[in-house]
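Morning F.,

Quick status update on the modeling queue. The single chain you submitted on Monday has been processed. Sequence for confirmation:
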Amino acid sequence: MSFGIALMLAACGAADKGESAASASANPVISLDTLRTVTERLSSDEFEGREPGSPGEAKTLAYLVERFQAAGLKPGNEGSWFQDVPLVELTAQNVSPLSFTGGKAPLSLAYGPQMVVGTNRVTPRIDLKDSEVVFVGYGINAPERGWNDYAGLDVKGKTVVILINDPDWETKNLEGPFGGRAMTYYGRWTYKYEEAARQGAAAALIVHQTEPAAYGWNVVQSSWTGAQQVADAANGHMDHSQAVGWIGLDQARALFASGGQDFARLAAAAKVKGFKAVPLGGVKASVSFDMNVRKHSSKNVIGILPGTSRADEYVLYTAHWDHLGRCEKAPDGDDICNGAIDNATGTAALVALAQANAKAGPTPRTQVFLAVTAEESGLLGSAYYGSNPVFPHARTVGGVNIDAMQLAPPARNVVVVGKGKSELDGFLERALAAQGRVATAEPTPEKGFYYRSDHFSFAKYGVPMLYFDGGDDLVKGGKAAGAAYAEDYEKNRYHGPADEFNPGWDWSGALRDAQVYYAVGRALAQSDAWPKWAPGDEFRAIRDRSRSGATG
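Structure tokens below.
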């Protein structure tokens, strides 16, 4: 049985200024066998969870080059398939309990079930001792919004306790000092640690709450225990805090009570502009651990289909090949986070899209197929490409990012992360119309997905990238069925050993989504348009500046 759906891109309207007639039609034949085979192979135990710097990486790279070559791609980096990405692997060992003394009652939090901790510093040992604890609300310093949780506060040498997400995340609409329900970058855990380091904090601890974090403690525990990757840096990241980590909600409540404070009251107060940080009654934090430090070079994999008449203009297809490697054991003893859906499926789609485009023949613009490393460690591979682009950002038209294909039956829609941000939406809507589907905005913008995948690394340099998830309105079962699929994946598989290949998966929905990726990318590669960011978008000015010096 073939699940192939012929995509015919609708004729371009007047609004699609500059788009060539050649982009008006495409008939993709996406290989279901490729999607299945590549996903199954990359997520097998043989690849050990595809951790950067592990034997699993070497196997992954060799397999991707083999598949890229067979698909018809050419090496994309001056004759090489690879772009070296300098990394440091940091593994915390002999982690002591995180202890709090000096309050009403001493606390000792266990590594794993109650707290996780690590460091970005490239150093063999961390000893945090008797560091005064201060609650800094959401830990945000945003002058343009008139908000500073660190105002009048000196946290040098201190441990800051921080809430996840933005102060207005519980708002039901998109109105508020930080975009209401939609998370801004200020809400991301990465920002919280960055700002704490800028303020001089010795340690930064985020309080885990499932709804504003968008995932349960199991995800925090599996992601933070074991080896961690950071970008290599000349200063060894010694300007970062000594220790960063998370503590459970119940443990946070106990900590605040020990410091003579009520967690719920202070958390509510932190939502209001003008909140002042609160020391926790003389409570002091201590934790220590050894660090196993290993410098290594991971790799992005780059293949291209050279363009014809405008070969110096580039269209990107991106997906991350890495996952977590060995992780926290499941009850059955399985300690391999195979990352079948996240993101063996996206990497398989990258290969299948390369195949389909090679068979369809060259396009005016060069098509770039980029499998990046270390996404799970904080978008490190794409960030490195962003700061060291193989193809100039000013000559990169835009593209699509593929992260975790949905293995649910067909849906009536796709869920666009960042809908309305750029003119790429028009390309997507035409591709979906050919399937009788629609694009809908993400229903949970508070989860901050826009800042959690590799498209963000390109957006920061002004390159518009389209990122969508499989639909949440299934043809059979509607939104209830879509919600049940999403809940099962997030609770039982996401970032855990249970994210394994399932021979019984229904690929029909994922195949339709892959065809949409093809249609969008192919239309961009055939077009002469340069999609813009929406007026007022945070990345518009960056793109305008980079394009002002470019021709074409």
